[in-house]
# Entry
Amino acid sequence: MQHRHRFKAYFTATVIGTLLASTCSQAWADDAGKAKPLALRKIMQDMGKNMQGITDGISREDWEMVARVAPLIADHPQPPLAEKMRIVSFVGSDAGKFKSYDEKTHQVARALEQAAVRSDGQAVISSFATLQNSCLACHQSFRKPFVEHFYVQR
# Structure
């Protein structure tokens, strides 16, 4: 009976110690990387991969692939509400411009999808060029200020 009590106490102490260590190490990691990446960064990285997938599909005239990937861009995930509020607060009076780029991305990616469904290579390429130009315009307007504001430590 006494042996069982020691084992239970040891087990409990080990579990509590492990939980405390993991909590402390997570807090330390959060403090060490003050510039915690926005969810938006992962969303943008995924969209970049999807754009590469579309490029690959276009180069092989794989319209089914293009039609499968385009909605991933059109309906990309949104950042959590708290992050959206931080972003809108940061962009301030340019919030409408930022939102319009996102809306254009949605619309053009949907047009790209429909062109791919029709196997209309010319329309796919035209829509993809428009999509790339929309991405570029947004990046030229917002990427550098976002990086400086959310990631560069001062």
Notes: The two ends are 60 Å apart (CA to CA). The chain has a mean pLDDT of 84. The chain has six helices and no strands. Residues 5 and 11 are 10 Å apart (CA to CA).
